[in-house]
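Sample A.
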Amino acid sequence: MDLLGKTIVITGASSGLGSELAFQAAEKGANLALLARREEELKRLKERLVEQFPIKCHYFVVDITNEHKLREVFLQIEDQFNGIDVLINNAGYGVFETVEQTSLDEMKKMFEVNVFGLISCSKFSIPSMRLKGKGHIINIASMAGKVATSKAAAYASTKHAVLGFSNALRQELINDHIFVTNINPGPMDTPFFEIADDSGSYAKSVRKIMLDPQKVAGKVISLIGKNVFDVDLPWWMGTGSKLMALFPRISNKLLIKFGNKK
């Protein structure tokens, strides 16, 4: 898809992978609707984008778990732009604790943001894409959605749910020419770990294999308009789910060792 003049909606846009996606989409000439909760960060990001690129850019301060407010935001986006061409569901967070340590409220909040927020954004964007006769929904899932490890049971569950939702939604939208793509990154060097791993021990232990958010963003942007189902980053991590199916006992032992680094 030629992104010049196309409208891309990015959730969780204020920092990390979200802001990288915004810059690389703007570089391709895309107009941007940026969603996040932190207004100051969104404002600064918009100022930098419109200063560097001749694009249309608006930001919307919204908690994606607030269904009523989110619906209003998507109506505003359709009104202020020429509909929606691409949705990148990037917003999400995790907490690395055991099931016993994690409160039920925290688990519910993860599902509200990572799953129901993503579902709501997808649902609200589909009518506009259908009117255009095509579109693309890109969901930033996680390798945790394919290979769960200890101290990430709730987070991994949310990403399993995202994969299931995406795979079913893809089938529903096949005749509308709306593509649905799952992006499954491994550990990435973003503010995600400030919440997920406040001790810093896990981030330090996986520093050598951490993904560069600029490279991940570049990969995501390059896939827009292509009917790609699933992308594992890095590719070799995707073999983990296949090995689990073939050698469950051995894989489980290896995963325990990896998960205990958290």
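Sample B, a different protein:
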Amino acid sequence: MSAEFQEQIYRHTTASATRSWRERRGRYLLEGTRCKDCGAIHYPRRTVCSTCNSRNLEPFKHPTTGTIVMANICWQATGVHFGYGENIPRISTVIRLDDGATILAEVADTDIPKIVEGARVEMVLKKLHRESNSTWMYGYKFVVVD
């Protein structure tokens, strides 16, 4: 609440306990879906197969290892006034998991020269950001394994 608005303002970035509970298996275990009819795998989970339009899907746990297909480094400014603080890299990558599924994820705790196409990566759980209600949102990131 604020002094100007007495009612609580709904924010799209506020953590929802219900939504977090429903998405926990995908966020923490990389669980998607597999079509029982055509065998197509999907991440994140879906209710309809994008290959054959079947609704006959089952939960499927993807492997936590894969290879980097493409990487992009974006330098993010920190500090009170953006541009006057330290610049930190945010490394977004396209990762092909060992079962063939492709996901977009960040690479953390890795030296920048090691992040190249074809490098082997493994999933780890990390803090993603702090919500407006002071709770931490956790999720997956990847690290390069030697």
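Observation for Sample B: The longest helix spans residues 17-29.
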